[in-house]
Amino acid sequence: MTDTTQMQASDRPVVTRFAPSPTGYLHIGGARTALFNWLYARGRGGKFLLRIEDTDRERSTPEATDAILKGLKWLGLDWDGEPISQFARAERHAEVARRMLETGHAYKCFSTPDEIAAFRDQAKAEGRSTMFLSPWRDADPATHPDAPYVIRLKAPRDGETVVRDAVQGDVTFRNDQLDDMVLLRSDGTPTYMLAVVVDDHDMGVTHVIRGDDHLNNAARQMQIYHAMGWEVPVFAHIPLIHGPDGKKLSKRHGAVGLEQYQAMGYPAAGMRNYLARLGWSHGDDEFFTDAQAMAWFDLDGIGRAPARLDFKKLEHICGLHIAAMDDDALMAELEAFMKASGRPELTDKQKQRLSRALYCVKDRAKTFPDLLDKAHFALIDRPVEPDEKAAKILDSVSRGILNQLTPQLQNASWDRDKLEAVVAEVAEANGIGLGKIAGPLRAALAGRTVSPSVFDMMLVLGRDETLARLKDATA
Question: What's the subunit arrangement here (predicted)?
Answer without folding.
Answer: Monomer.
